[in-house]
């Protein structure tokens, strides 16, 4: 294990260990109501309020959340959905696993969020939906995005897998679109003790349809109105998430403090590019990503010095084997230059609420040492 881990979930759990044990004991040994229990309903209500939506539907994981969100719209197979080229593959599975047409656009070179000028240039008469990914816990210019959505009469889905609790212009991310989706994978800002996800909306008809899809097409037992699947957030995970939800804003504040310290200590290192945040955005820093010269050597140097790191993401969507033959390979480099550049140059540094100032100082010192040594060769 690294001296400074990329992520340390134990530090988050220890302060609420007794509360979690009490919740688990109640559900497991007293109520034994593991599926669609009252704790799920309580969490759904609380998370809907937290995200400024009317409804929340818990599902099995973030990938299912995206797939069900797209399925609930009842689109035609020729309908086109646009998302960004530097996302995690689950965003794209939400589109292609529903047999809809996936179109990618490049990202802004500085913020790593969707390039909205590229977005508008790529909208056609077949475009029906935009899936915006609030990558790293930040976002694009949501005012401009909403203008584009309204101008072209499009549906907006927000992929909030990395942005639990973030704001743009004092409005929660996840409350801009018709639908927003969340992942509660353990490493997320709000993470479960296993897989979990949710879909939020303020549209009652969509809420009802999504509730049916996640429960084998049924709300009332044995009455299956539509084709669905088994994708339910279990009661135990919901109770744990509800407990952790109370601490989310405070933990996000700690993440912002950590990011500020990183930026302060690394601001004069010319070999790296620090994250740029869109004006009006209050980020939650699910990840702290820098663009670095000699990225792979820096990564190994940090690992050799006991510092955990990651790359999000080392292989762009267009070059994944699962999408072989889906895209026209001859224009990859020209069409998505910034996304391709990121795959080769970005590195994610340790980021979690209880990362200490001493640890951040050591990480930054080690980065500076690497570039001093690298300059000698």
Give structural notes.
This protein is of the alpha/beta class and 377 residues long. The protein folds into 2 domains: 9-245, Aspartate Aminotransferase, domain 2 (3-Layer(aba) Sandwich); 248-374, Aspartate Aminotransferase, domain 1. Helix content is 40%, strand content 14%. Strand 6 and strand 7 (171-172) form a beta hairpin.
Sum this structure up briefly.
The chain is of the alpha/beta class and 377 residues long.
The CATH superfamily of the largest domain is identified as: Type I PLP-dependent aspartate aminotransferase-like (Major domain)
Strand order of the largest sheet: 1-9-8-5-4-2-3
**Secondary-structure content class:** alpha/beta
Q: Mean pLDDT across all residues, rounded?
A: 94
The main sheet comes to: 7 strands, mixed
Task: Report the helical percentage.
Answer: 40-55%
CATH overall fold name of the largest domain: Aspartate Aminotransferase, domain 2
Number of strands: 13
Low-confidence regions: none
Succession of helices and strands:
HHHEHEHEHEHEEEEEHHHEEEHHHEH
What fraction of the residues are assigned to beta strands by DSSP? 5-15%
N→C terminal distance: 30 Å
């Amino acid at each position: 294990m690294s001296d400074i881990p990329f992520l340390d979930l134990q530090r988050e759990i220890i302060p609420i260990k007794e509360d979690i044990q009490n919740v688990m004991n109640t559900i497991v040994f007293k109520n034994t109501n593991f599926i669609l229990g009252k704790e799920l309903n309580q969490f759904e209500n609380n998370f809907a309020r937290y995200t400024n939506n009317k409804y929340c539907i818990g599902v099995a994981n973030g990938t299912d959340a995206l797939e069900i969100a797209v399925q609930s719209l009842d689109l035609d197979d020729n309908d086109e959905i646009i998302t960004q080229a530097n996302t995690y593959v689950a965003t794209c599975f939400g589109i292609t696993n529903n047999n809809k047409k996936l179109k990618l656009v490049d990202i802004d070179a500085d913020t790593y969020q969707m390039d909205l000028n590229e977005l508008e240039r790529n909208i056609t008469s077949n475009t029906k939906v935009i899936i915006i990914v609030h990558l790293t816990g930040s976002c694009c210019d949501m005012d401009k995005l909403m203008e584009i959505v309204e101008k072209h009469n499009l549906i907006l889905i927000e992929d909030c897998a990395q942005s639990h609790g973030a704001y743009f212009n004092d409005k929660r991310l996840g409350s801009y679109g018709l639908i927003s989706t969340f992942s509660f994978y353990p490493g997320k800002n709000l993470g479960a003790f296993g897989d979990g996800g949710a879909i939020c909306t303020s549209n009652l008809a969509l809420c009802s349809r999504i509730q049916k899809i996640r429960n084998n097409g049924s709300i009332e037992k044995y009455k299956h109105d539509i084709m669905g699947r088994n994708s339910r957030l279990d009661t135990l995970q919901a109770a744990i998430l509800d407990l952790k939800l109370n601490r989310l804003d405070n933990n996000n504040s700690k993440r912002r403090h950590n990011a500020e310290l990183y930026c302060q200590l690394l601001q004069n290192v010319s070999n790296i590019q620090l994250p740029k945040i869109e004006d009006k955005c209050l980020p939650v820093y699910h990840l702290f990503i820098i663009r670095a010269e000699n990225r792979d050597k820096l990564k190994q140097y940090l690992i050799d010095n006991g510092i955990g790191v990651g790359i999000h993401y080392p292989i762009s969507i267009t070059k994944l084997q699962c999408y072989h033959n889906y895209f026209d390979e001859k224009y990859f480099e020209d069409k998505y230059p910034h996304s391709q550049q990121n795959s080769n140059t970005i590195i994610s540094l340790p980021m979690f609420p209880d990362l200490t100032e001493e640890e951040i100082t050591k990480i930054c010192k080690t980065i500076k040492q690497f570039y001093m040594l690298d300059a000698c060769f």
